[in-house]
Amino acid sequence: MDWKEVLRRRLATPNTDPNSEFGRSRPLGQPGPKLELPAEDEVLLQKLREESRAVFLQRKSRELLDNEELQNLWFLLDKHQTPPMIGEEAMINYENFLKVGEKAGPKCKQFFTAKVFAKLLHTDSYGRISIMQFFNYVMRKVWLHQTRIGLSLYDVAGQGYLRESDLENYILELIPTLPQLDGLEKSFYSFYVCTAVRKFFFFLDPLRTGKIKIQDILACSFLDDLLELRDEELSKESQETNWFSAPSALRVYGQYLNLDKDHNGMLSKEELSRYGTATMTNVFLDRVFQECLTYDGEMDYKTYLDFVLALENRKEPAALQYIFKLLDIENKGYLNVFSLNYFFRAIQELMKIHGQDPVSFQDVKDEIFDMVKPKDPLKISLQDLINSNQGDTVTTILIDLNGFWTYENREALVANDENSADLDDT
């Protein structure tokens, strides 16, 4: 495999895992000492500040390895590999590693340290590291810095965070560089950008401040998912599970249009009630429209996206926080027997309407408390729900008849699946 192929794959699948050593570096624009920003009417000072930031970012960009320098590094590493190979994997010892560092140029100096070598040293009996792993490490670092600089260009305030409009501009200008979005109609761009930006803000701005730290954008996996769309050979399965793919964005927007029966561009409570399996309770939907931003009692696309992100990611803390706020009808910061009963009564009513046998609230209440095991035996806090890893099950039981039926009949459904598997094997 030559260096170009390695580079192509690296760019197609960038990695900014915050738990890895490759994802933990100080972002450009991370707030340092507080500096006064020019006032809105100080046009000259604002322009001067923008120009100085642009010059600073350009200088930072020039400090990064370019493609030619990466190619040279790859050739040097290949030339200094230390035999024997492990399978098809070329290795290098510390002595040759230092020799490459001396020849690779000043930009590479930061990578050729004992600390980096030790990080990549695993169980090789000759005390060597994998050339491929080291090269991937360098490219992860370069990619991370490139992305940081790219995001910082949109940080108008220069304070280390992006506002919604900043991130919208970043993604809008990114679209033409993502081959997987080539088929998108330009008329759909604004809806695509809204769909993409909403995921960042739903999960990274839980307090709804209207801004996200660049540090948090780099540390999460969403940017990886978005830039995965650079890969021209991305599988259909990967596209379907990627929120930022064209099929996924069109699916979400298409659902919104299908729910909008009166074609006024907004959703009423009655229209939203047909979401999914159309089995959410009226009590829960009432709470959605009481707590979420609406316009004359109807929901716009942005508010709908929050709703979808919450219901499609019920295991995530941000989604549980969204749903918990709706379930906490007394705004006490916890769920008690009264609030659980308030929502479950609506499930019981739907069961009667559909001719299903009634289920005792007492039994369901006991099951919920057994699942969550809250610190206070009479109250369930949001943190209790998150810590239990049962938050998705608990919330589903309380808001959706189909979800409750699936939970109640889980053992029978598992048995049916096992019987079907046995029949397939015969």
UniProtKB/TrEMBL annotation:
<keyword id="KW-0479">Metal-binding</keyword>
<dbReference type="GO" id="GO:0045579">
    <property type="term" value="P:positive regulation of B cell differentiation"/>
</dbReference>
<dbReference type="InterPro" id="IPR018247">
    <property type="entry name" value="EF_Hand_1_Ca_BS"/>
</dbReference>
<feature type="region of interest" description="Disordered">
    <location>
        <begin position="1"/>
        <end position="35"/>
    </location>
</feature>
<dbReference type="GO" id="GO:0000226">
    <property type="term" value="P:microtubule cytoskeleton organization"/>
</dbReference>
<dbReference type="InterPro" id="IPR039865">
    <property type="entry name" value="PPP2R3C"/>
</dbReference>
<dbReference type="GO" id="GO:0005819">
    <property type="term" value="C:spindle"/>
</dbReference>
<keyword id="KW-0677">Repeat</keyword>
<feature type="domain" description="PP2A regulatory subunit B'' EF-hand">
    <location>
        <begin position="156"/>
        <end position="232"/>
    </location>
</feature>
<dbReference type="Pfam" id="PF17958">
    <property type="entry name" value="EF-hand_13"/>
</dbReference>
<dbReference type="GO" id="GO:0001782">
    <property type="term" value="P:B cell homeostasis"/>
</dbReference>
<dbReference type="GO" id="GO:0035303">
    <property type="term" value="P:regulation of dephosphorylation"/>
</dbReference>
<keyword id="KW-0963">Cytoplasm</keyword>
<dbReference type="GO" id="GO:0005813">
    <property type="term" value="C:centrosome"/>
</dbReference>
<dbReference type="GO" id="GO:0030865">
    <property type="term" value="P:cortical cytoskeleton organization"/>
</dbReference>
<protein>
    <recommendedName>
        <fullName>Serine/threonine-protein phosphatase 2A regulatory subunit B'' subunit gamma</fullName>
    </recommendedName>
</protein>
<comment type="function">
    <text>May regulate MCM3AP phosphorylation through phosphatase recruitment. May act as a negative regulator of ABCB1 expression and function through the dephosphorylation of ABCB1 by TFPI2/PPP2R3C complex. May play a role in the activation-induced cell death of B-cells.</text>
</comment>
<dbReference type="GO" id="GO:0046872">
    <property type="term" value="F:metal ion binding"/>
</dbReference>
<dbReference type="InterPro" id="IPR041534">
    <property type="entry name" value="EF-hand_13"/>
</dbReference>
<dbReference type="InterPro" id="IPR011992">
    <property type="entry name" value="EF-hand-dom_pair"/>
</dbReference>
<keyword id="KW-0539">Nucleus</keyword>
<dbReference type="GO" id="GO:0005737">
    <property type="term" value="C:cytoplasm"/>
</dbReference>
<comment type="subunit">
    <text>Interacts with MCM3AP/GANP, PPP5C, and the phosphatase 2A core enzyme composed of the PPP2CA catalytic subunit and the constant regulatory subunit PPP2R1A. Finds in a complex with ABCB1, TFPI2 and PPP2R3C; leading to the dephosphorylation of ABCB1.</text>
</comment>
<dbReference type="GO" id="GO:0043029">
    <property type="term" value="P:T cell homeostasis"/>
</dbReference>
<keyword id="KW-0106">Calcium</keyword>
<dbReference type="GO" id="GO:0005634">
    <property type="term" value="C:nucleus"/>
</dbReference>
